[in-house]
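Re: How this chain folds, sequence and tokenised backbone to follow

Filed under: protein folding, tokenised backbone structure, sequence and structure records.

Contents: The amino acid chain and a row of whole-number tokens, matched residue for residue.

Body of memo: The sequence and its backbone structure tokens, given next.
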Amino acid sequence: MLVSQTPYEIVGVMPADFHTPSMGTQSTIRLSPADSLWAPFVPRPVQKADRGNRGLRILARLDGRTSMAGAQRNLGVVAAQLAASYPDSNRNITVQVLPLMESLTGSVRPALLALIGAAGLFLLIACANVASLLLARGSARGREFATRAALGAGRARLVRQLLTESLLLASLGGAAGVALAVASLSLARQASAALDIPRLGESVLDLPVLLLAMALSTVTGLLFGLMPALRLTRSADRGGTADPRGVRIRQMLISGVTAITLMLLFSASLLLTTFRRLTAGQSSAAERTYTFQTTINGTRWNHPPLDRQFCDSLLERLRQIPNVEAAGLTTNLLQIGDNSGTLVSVVGNAPVPPDRQPMAAYTMADAGFFHLAGLPLREGRLFEARDHANSPGVAVVNEAFVRAVSSDAPLLGRQVRLLGVTETPLEIVGVVSDARPFRLGGQERARLFYPYSQFASTRVIGMVRIAAGGAPPVNAIRGILRELEPAAPMFEVRTVADLLDMATSAPRWGSVLLGAFAVMALLLASVGVMGVVNFVAGQRTRECGIRIALGSTPAGVKWLVARQGHVAGRPRTRRRSRRVAGRGPRHLHLPGRNPRRECSAVARRRATAGRGGGHCGVPAREAGDQGRSGPDAAL
């Protein structure tokens, strides 16, 4: 088999579900795709001589006698020896040992923890609802409990009976939850590639998960069934009047459920709004911009100056395709991420210790790439025809590079060195804006662009933007590559819109799932509050009859029940919403948002909706109907 015109002998075939960890970006490790091949790593002499090249990730398996801390100590000794032998490149350079699972799941761990927290809050709302419904159901069984107590049943036996009933309900709910999880997991496996969550396709409902579900069902059944059981067995038959202590408990349930629902709604609204802003800059041009990759390794173009001639010919022919508005070449798609990076130093500045020396990514580009990537020029110029192989080396940097390297002095016209990348310094001739990252919470790195006319790469990413309504240029690009070099492959053909959709899949699905939790929590909270208020109205039958007898109207009784149901949750809800807003900026880290102001706005809208009587209307209407039949019937 030929790979980049290099013959390889196939010596083994791995199973279809085999994946190996591979480096995805500068700080993450990803699993290799299914259509992968593996070849022995044999470093070239130039790679061995370049002590500034730190683009590799080392994977190692510890034996049973060495701990993670021991491995860290041993490699620290090796790093100290290298620093003593090579002080110019290895001084203050350390080694960090991390578990592989932490490296694989580090990028998605916060999102998964947020979803687990949302699921826990959802469970809490459901349990509070069950507790309130048990109270409501127990109010109709007051005579039954009094009869059982009169016949000799002790309080412990009554509590045991109520706990048995609550455990049965919790077990049925847990079984239904496991069945729903099986169905949801099947859908999640099918969408694992789009969700970009490591090892999601391998997720199963194994014995530990089932035991956890059983334990949660048992604990919630006992915990939230105990309180109603104690209250119902302690209370005597009050003839329909309200118990002051029970009223406080019910008000706490209402306020707690409302506050938790408000917190979920606020978080989901904030994430969805931030995600919309994250992708708001994606214009229709992203749908019309096509990218492809090719390589000239192993071909006749694989050495200077032919590599630069290949890029010249490729770029010229791409611009001649019908309906093409612009074309460009690069080695990295900025918004998606890359793994290039090296130490940077400014010529003429005082030497900086390696531990404080800035690091920057480096990307090959041409003048047309900046327009396609949406990087406007801030100062200076872009690459021009005078920047050729025989002219002094030039570079264009982004604003993050200026902040990282020399924030207190202008860099335009200065020369910089890239350790292990170029032997001669590069003059900075222009500054462009930062690329807007399309990963939630991501920031653009310090980046330096160099022209392919001076330092061409054997791996090239081409970008072509067609006019609106134009035909896709895929076949035309394939024909151009076949004419230039029949052995040059064409792969990873996608539009920029597809790439951005892949880059934002994790925050998008996380926002959707959190929004679904918030909507379901709102429905559950409405049902729970309605049940609690209905219980309150049922206990106040005689009070309603007395109010009607003393001249009140059924409409007044309705307003009283609805208003008290709303006021029960309003003060605590507002206080807790402010508390959530106060914590927001430290934990959410969402750009361009004011969680305190937005949480207050959501709280006001939620309180206004509650005042409308949506969840208190049915109990209030029933309380008013009790008065229509006359106070004598109510009494």
In short: Residues 24-31, 236-242, 571-593, 595-614 have pLDDT under 50 and may be disordered. The longest strand covers residues 459-466. The chain has 22 helices and 15 strands. The longest helix spans residues 155-190.
